[in-house]
Amino acid sequence: MSTALLLAIATASIVILLLLVIKAKVHPFVALLIVSLIVAISTGIPADKIMETIFSGMGNLLGHITIIIVLGAMLGAVIEASGGAESLAQRFSKSLGIKRTVAALTMAAFILGIPVFFEVGFIIVIPLIYGFTKVARVSPLKFGLPMAGVMLTVHVALPTHPGAAAAAGILHTDMGWLMMLGILISIPVGIVGYYVAKAMNLRQYHLSVDVLEQLQLAKPEGTPKSEVPPPGAMTIAGLIVVPIVLIVLGTLAHTMLAEGSILRNVMTVIGNPPIALLIALALAAWLLGVRRGWSKEKLEDLTGRAIPSSASVILVAGAGGAFGKVLVESGVGKALAVTLETLHLPLVPAAFILSLALRASQGSATVAILTTSGLLSQAVGDVTDMQRVLVTLAACFGGLGLSHVNDAGFWVVTRYLGLSVADGLKTWTVLTTLMGLSGFALTWMVWELI
After folding, report:
1. Helix, strand, coil proportions of the chain in percent (round to 5)?
2. Residues 397 and 352 sit within 8 Å (Cβ to Cβ)
3. Whole-number Cα distances in Å, 216 to 28, 92, 136, 203, 210
């Protein structure tokens, strides 16, 4: 099949998906499955491989995120029911004021994003976002958009994460310089994201009923107050930090301790994100529930009710993974990469545009970064070590932009923040693209200076 036809099918599939979700009001899970089938049939994927490809794309993604999303939802439910998130929010808001609180949480999200995968970190901070939203009585987008933006920035740009680390290996980039320059460029990119999100929050967006109910922004009069005082702010902060610390320690143990040592094995297990969240959930159940007089039945009911609320996020993200897998198997990404490679652009813009196009075409930032690095591996043979670092960063920032309907992260962010697909494209997609462009501009500027 010709390159032009493959690209036309990919474009048409995204248009059909948007029409189904926005105009026909089809649930995103069903709409994603429909367009996945359309692309698979149109691009000639063998009939006996179509459902296998869809199952593979959905299964691979759900295998990574299902446990994390469910445990994160349960942890959030316990913290929310205890009044702890509001307690922490009130403490911060009283000390800093709302404007400074948004900036402080964005900086905290930047630091959190360095060791913790994007989806994991975002799910961990969701109780914080909801708690601050209720105290300030503002949209969750005020806190959620800038925090998610900076977390995704460090996820794609720093070699503590798989995309940048693997790209460094493919392009033989110095890991230390990549880390230092990645952080230095990611800081102003994060600032750009903060102000772009601030501008976006000047207009109002219609939030989903599920999120509004979870936030309980309008409590009915006469709602009885709990006789048990809410837990302290530091207790809640500690519970949120616990899984982060465990994940960081697990990463450090894996790289710094001798292979086969007992401590390394123990830390690798408890530093795995699902185990770290399970430990945090157990601590929350004891500190916020059992120790404060909650019955076993109440805890079971709280954690049980968290599962249905997370099911929609899981299913839609999984269907997004299936759509992305079909696009990869159809050859759309490869066709697009070959087309752009023939244009013979300078290295830094070539790395950025290739990665951005691949990100847009198949959804995964990591796949976009790795594919771009592979395509450019021969082209960087004669550049200096520092230029090699900048080419790697350009590819990474390409993977930051154009997060849209074929990206599982798009669905995680928009579902938790209560955005419709149309508003998600106007906010999250635009935000990630502007941040990616600013990262590329800074990288190219450094290239010109050295």
Report:
1. 80, 0, 20
2. yes
3. 25, 20, 13, 21, 10
- Using CA atoms, how far apart are residues 322 and 28, in angstroms rounded to an integer? 12
**Distance from C-alpha of 278 to C-alpha of 396, rounded to nearest angstrom:** 31
Distance CA 415, CA 265 (A): 36
pLDDT digits (tens, 9 = 90+) for 179-219: 889 889 999 999 999 999 999 988 888 887 677 666 664 44
Q: What is the pLDDT of residues 405-436, one digit of tens each?
A: 888 889 889 988 999 889 999 999 999 999 99
Helix (H, G, I), strand (E, B) or coil at 416: helix
193, 149 Cβ separation under 8 angstroms = yes
Distance, in Å, from the CA atom of 127 to the CA atom of 257, rounded to the nearest integer, reads 34
SS3 84: helix
CA distance 369 to 433: 15
- Amino acid occupying residue 302: L
The closest alpha carbon to 189, from 449, 446, 444, 441, belongs to 441
Torsion-angle region of 216 (φ positive above 0: left; ψ -120 to 50: alpha; else: beta): left
Structure tokens of 286? 């004891």
Whether 185 contacts 443, CB under 8 Å: yes
Residue with tokens 């911060």: 92
Provide the b/e sequence for 370-399 (b: ≥16 CB within 10 Å).
Answer: bbbbebbeeebeeeeeebbbbbbbbbbbbb
Specify the residue for token string 């975002």. Answer: 122
Q: Which two tokens stand for residue 99?
A: 């404007």
pLDDT in tens, 63-98: 767 887 788 778 877 877 887 766 766 776 677 666
Question: How many beta carbons lie within 10 A of that of residue 48, not counting itself?
Answer: 7
Tell me 20's DSSP state: I
pLDDT at 98: 66
**How far apart are alpha carbons 372 and 389 in whole angstroms?**
14
Closest listed residue to residue 404, CA positions, set 395, 394, 413, 416: 413
Nearest by Cα to 140 from 108, 105, 168, 164: 105
Residues 6+ apart with CB under 8 A from 63: none
Query: Which residues in 378-443 belong to E strands, given as ranges?
Result: none
Two structure tokens written together for 230: 């809410």
Predicted TM-score (pTM) of this structure? 0.73
Distance from the Cα of residue 144 to its chain's centroid? 11
CA 234 to chain centre: 26
Residue that is written with structure tokens 């693997």 in the block: 166
Contacts of 107 (CB under 8 A, 6+ apart): none
